[in-house]
Amino acid sequence: MKVLLVRLFELIVIFPFCQADDPDFSVHAMLQSAVGQDLPADCVNESVGTQWYGGFQAAVDTMMQRTKRTMQLGLTSMAKGVLLLTDETAACGDKPELHPLRDQAERLKVLASTRSLAGLDSTVRYEPLKALSVGGIDVHSELNALLVAWRMNHGPEVVGKTLARFLADFSEDAEDSSPEPPPEAPVLETQHRPGALQRTPSFWASLLNSAFRRLKDDSSPVSVACVAEGTAQLNADKFDEAFGRMMQKTQRSMQHGLKILALAVDSLLSILQEHVMCQQPLRSAAGAARLRAAASRLETLVGTRSLINPGTNVKYEAKQMLKVGEKDVHLELNKLITAWIKDQSAEDVGQGLAEFFEDFQEEEEEEDVSSQFGGQVADLSDMLSDAVSAAGGCSGASPSSCFEDPALKAFAAEVEHGIGHMLKKRRKTMQQGLKELSDAVEKVFAAASPTCQQCTGTSIIRQGARKVRHLTRKMVVDYGTYIKYEALKSLEVGGVAVHGQLNSFLGAWKLRGVREAGTPLGILFQRFSTITGHDEF
Fold first, then answer.
1. Going by fewer Cβ within 10 Å, which terminus of the chain is more open, N or C?
2. Where are the residues of the annotated region Disordered (predicted)?
3. Quick check: 234 pLDDT over 60?
C-alpha cells in the first residue's frame, strides 16, 4: 500500500493534468458530500463557489511544488477555503452539520501556520513522496487521496468525501487508541498561594497594560475600574492552578496547565471587553487582540491529539526542554512562573506573560489589526463611496476623494472588531457590535472633507449612525425594548427590521471583500435612519 501511495504521488507530479476551470464542478455538491447530508441549494452562491474553487486549485498547485514551506502554505490555504464555506457569516454557517468541518479546518489552519520564531521548524513534517504529518498526525494517505480525486477530475462527490476524511484527522474527539492514562494527581503544593497584591484589580490592570506594551501597544487600555475584585481573585486562582499543574513536571500535567493558562487569559480579556469601562479602549487595543489570538492558538495546539499520543504537540522533559507546536518555550515559561511564584511586580509578570505568548502569534500576523487593510485603502475608499451612493448619492465632490488613509485603516479595524462581537450571536454582543459599527461609521464620516460631508448620502448615513449610537447606549433594562434580537432569525433596532440588510453587509465584508461591502453598508444605514426619534444631539 505504501508503494502504491508513493506511485500515485509520482503520477501527479509526472503528468501535468492540473484540473482546469470546470463550469460543471458543483461546490454545493462537494460540500454536501463532505458533511454527508443534504444542504439547501442556496448554501453556496456562485461568487463564493468561484472563490473557493480558485483558492483550492491554487492551494493544490502550491502543495505540488513539493517543499516543506509550500506544503505548509498550501495546507493553510486549503483550511481557509473550508472556513470560507462554513464560516458563521456564510449562507449556511448556522447549520449544525457544518460545525465539525469548520472546527477541523480551524485546527488545521493553526497547526499548518505554526512555525518557530527562527522559521527552522514547524508542526508540518514533510518528505516528498514519502511522508507528511501535521501536528504529529500522519495525513500522508488522506491528503494523497484528496489530491488524486481533485487532479484526476473524480467529481465533486468524491472530492467532498476525501476532503472530509482528510479533515477528520483534526477532530477534537479523535479516538485515542493508547491505554487510558492514570488519573492526574491532585495539584501539588507549590509553596505559593496568590498574595494579597495578586488578588487586587490594580495588579491585573498593571499586568495587562505591561503585557500590551511588550506587544507594541502603549495605549494602556485597562483601568483599575475595569477589573472587578471577583475577576481579579478568580484569575489569581486560575494562574496558580495552571502553574501548580505545570510544576508536577509530567508531560500530561504540563499540557493541562498550559490549557488552563490559555483559557484563563482568553476568559479574562473576554470579561473585560464586556465591561462598560473597558469596551471603548479595548476595542481598538492591538495588544489585547494579539494576546487573545495567541491564547486561542495555544489552546488549539495543546488540545490537538494524534491517534496514539494525546499530547503530541507538547514535548516536555523536566528541567530540560519544553516544546509546544515545535516552538521551544522553556525559558519563557520559566521566567513567567518565577515572576508569579516569587511575587514579583505586576509589570514583571505582565512582561513574562507577553514574552511567553509572543511565541504563539501567527507567523503571517500583521503588526496591528488595522495593517491587515493597509494595502486596501483604495478599496475602502471606493467602498465608502458606494455606501454614500446607495444611501442617497452625492451631487458635489466625488465621494471617493473624501477620506484620508489613517482614518480608513482605523475604520476597517473598528468594523472588524464590531463584527467579531456580532458573530457571537448573543443579544448583548449584538448590541455591542452594533454600537462599535455605528461608532466606526460616524467617526470615519466625521473625518471626511467638509465638501463630502454635504453629500445627501453622507448625511443619511450619519443620521442612521447617530440613532444606533443613541439606542445602543440605553440602559440594560431598556435593551429588550429598543433592540430585539433572535439569533439567525430576526433583528429589530428601534422598531425597524434590519436582519436581512445586516446579513448582506456581513456576508459582503467577510466573504467577498471590503470593496463589495459599500452598497450593503449604505442600505443598512439608510434603513437605520428611518428609526423614529432617538437622535443624538
1. C
2. 171-193
3. yes
Q: How far apart, in whole angstroms, are the C-alpha atoms of residue 263 and residue 40?
A: 36
Q: Is 363 domain-assigned?
A: no
pLDDT at residue 133, as a whole number: 81
- CA dist 449 and 255 (Å) reads 54
Q: Which of 212-216, 346-350, 400-404 has the lowest mean pLDDT?
A: 400-404
Tell me whether residue 36 is in a domain: yes
Is the domain of 354 the same as that of 374?
no
Residue identified by cell 499548518 is 112
Domain count, the chain: 3
Q: What is the pLDDT of residue 474?
A: 56
Query: Which set of grid coordinates corresponds to residue 9?
Result: 504521488
Give me the torsion for CA of 454, 456, 461, 464, rounded to 10°. Answer: 110
Domain coverage including residue 44: 2-168
Task: Tell me the residue ranges of DSSP E strands in 42-154.
Answer: 124-127, 131-134, 137-138
Whether residues 286 and 151 fall in one domain? no
- How far apart are the C-alpha atoms of 330 and 324, rounded to whole Å? 9
Return d(Cα 148, Cα 41) in angstroms, integer. Answer: 27
Asked whether residue 348 falls in the same domain as residue 383, the answer is no
Contact 487, 426 (CB under 8 A): yes
Q: What is the pLDDT of residues 49-101, one digit of tens each?
A: 888 888 898 888 888 877 888 888 889 889 888 988 887 666 776 788 888 88
Beta-ladder partners of 483: 493
**Whether residue 224 sits in one domain with residue 141:** no
| Beta carbons of 75 and 112 less than 8 angstroms apart | yes
484: β partners: 492
pLDDT of res. 503? 87
